[in-house]
Amino acid sequence: MKLGLIGCGNIGTFLLQAINKDGLLPGGKIVSIYALREEIAAQLAEEFGTMSYRDVDSLLHSEVDLVIEAATIEAAEEYALKVLEGGKDLLLSSIGVMAGAAFEESVHEICRKNNVNVFLPSGAIGGLDVLKSAKAVNGLESVSITTRKPPSALPAGASLEKETVLFEGSAAEAIKQFPRNINVAIVLSLAGLGSEKTKVKIIADPDVLKNSHLIEASGSFGKLKLEVENDPMPNNPKTSYLAALSVLATLQNKDKTILVG
Q1: How much is the pTM?
Q2: Closest CA to 71 of 51, 95, 52
Q3: Is position 108 annotated as part of the catalytic site?
Q4: pLDDT tens digits, residue range 197-227?
Q5: Catalytic residue among 88, 148, 149, 213
Q6: What CATH number matches the domain at 128-230, 3.40.50.880, 2.40.50.100, 3.30.360.10, 3.30.420.240?
Q7: Looking at the chain, which terminus has fewer C-beta neighbours within 10 angstroms, N or C?
Q8: Architecture of domain 2-120+242-253 in this structure
Q9: How many CB atoms lie within 10 A of CB 164?
């Protein structure tokens, strides 16, 4: 499987190391990369034995089967539909882009038309299998996520000296206000009740060092309560290591003949 990569930040660099150097995706290699900072992309291309491109159109014309977006929600908005229209499968890291109903419908339409697929990793949370199972018989009644982070990990939160609720409302509104911090709420809503009915609370807490997510759901299946505390990536405290691992795991399981969950 020949992979293209949009974004050469923490997750992108992790994937280059894991796939191209460590061989953790047998039969797969990142052969094409693109980043806004051309000099960074060129350095990484030399280090990891791949090719860097100056624009996404050139990357799409290279021999890639699937494109990984590991950049920002703005990049996903700009390039996701173009990737699918180019006949390539797409793995989205910035899942918040799927919060808009019109955008999601465009993705579905292009995928059906071009026979391509979009893969959404679970990111820094769990419990999606339970939500999907309950949703199968319309048995899901409520879903919520409470995210607690150090103030430095949230915009306008660095100066806070006591626990503060920065947001409480729907996932649809949360992703508008915190586009780089609450992608987990959107993947949760896609597995469950949708972005308007998924409740979100975001807390800045100076007494914590790690990000944590408390997921709660109820319905005909019973109740779910799951808390995940994320260790950061070794080289960047603002990026969850589990989020990066979930991208790699999605690629590893993409073509499996036996699927779990």
Answers
A1: 0.93
A2: 95
A3: no
A4: 999 999 999 999 899 999 999 999 999 999 9
A5: 213
A6: 3.30.360.10
A7: C
A8: 3-Layer(aba) Sandwich (3.40)
A9: 14
